[in-house]
Automatic annotation (TrEMBL):
EC number: 1.13.12.19, 1.14.20.7
Reaction it catalyzes: L-arginine + 2-oxoglutarate + O2 = guanidine + L-glutamate 5-semialdehyde + succinate + CO2; 2-oxoglutarate + O2 + 2 H(+) = ethene + 3 CO2 + H2O
Entry-linked Pfam families: 2OG-FeII_Oxy (PF03171), DIOX_N (PF14226)
A biological process term (GO) from this entry: ethylene biosynthetic process
Record's protein name: 2-oxoglutarate-dependent ethylene/succinate-forming enzyme
Keywords: Ethylene biosynthesis, Iron, Metal-binding, Oxidoreductase
Enzyme class, broadest EC rank: oxidoreductase
Amino acid sequence: MNTNDRGDFSEIPVLDVAPLYGTDREKIAATAAQLCDYLENIGFLYVVGHQVAAQSVEAVREASKAFFALPEEQKLDVKIDKNFRGYLPFAGSTIVTSSVEAVSKPNQSESLFFMHEVDETDPRCLAGEPLQGPNQWPTEDLLPNFRPTIEHYVDGMSTLARKMVGAIALSLGLPEDSLDAHFEDPTIFLRLLHYPTQPKEEGLFGSAPHTDYGFITLLAQDDVGGLEVKNKDDEWIAAPPIPNAFVMNVGDILARWSNHRFVSTPHRVVNYSGRERYSQPFFFDPSMDAMIETIEACVPTGETPKSGPVRYGDYLMERIDKNYHYRKKAS
């Protein structure tokens, strides 16, 4: 990698990942090599050629709109719980762990969180392990077909995410399945987000400048826009919606895992459009018990890793507990 190229971009590149669903090893390797370049130098890209149906993306967006249109008291019936599942009211988070800038004002959004499903009889739930519990769902009579719509989407996104895990391993010169053990029981988030149009006020954002915590994010946005990515010249580059594309970015744990060979790039959301904005980021992260140690191939000869080993669950909970207002009140 030429370090002078890192962060030097004026637009977000597009990668066709269709070969990852096939068996042609040369095409898979070429896709992984191109992915490596984007992750090293930009940390962001558009993913096209995936097999997540456009109808599934749109169905989730419509379900999201229907939920956020409900009266507040009905949304609060599934208020976010200790397991980070449910409705987070407007302005419910402030990104105090941001490494990008000092953030003092809450994000101008409301959210509905889903994670990997954990039955209430599961030993992890019974033991009170962090983030291990059932999702909260609006009732079927209130929002018919809501749950199957979400679950179908999560299945398709999980398949895509696992393809990207394999491609990331290949991009580092590793066997395609070399990272799989860390994702045997992945930590999965689907966050449905609603951004009302916001006033132009200093320090006020739909989502304040930040980097993501985890491994990778795969974002579906509506046609409103507002996502911006920061380059090395401190310019905010628009990442406008592209039909049938996901915006993918590196999270902090992947940057750390790769000895910061891959860059977790700051980004933000501002919604000055005069329209409501809806987005649905999907976060695919390691198992809570996974130990993240710097990949040896990413450490130059004679050097030591830039970060020590960390248990993913401990790392994640520190950030969640600091950034979400309701966590500060939890017993």
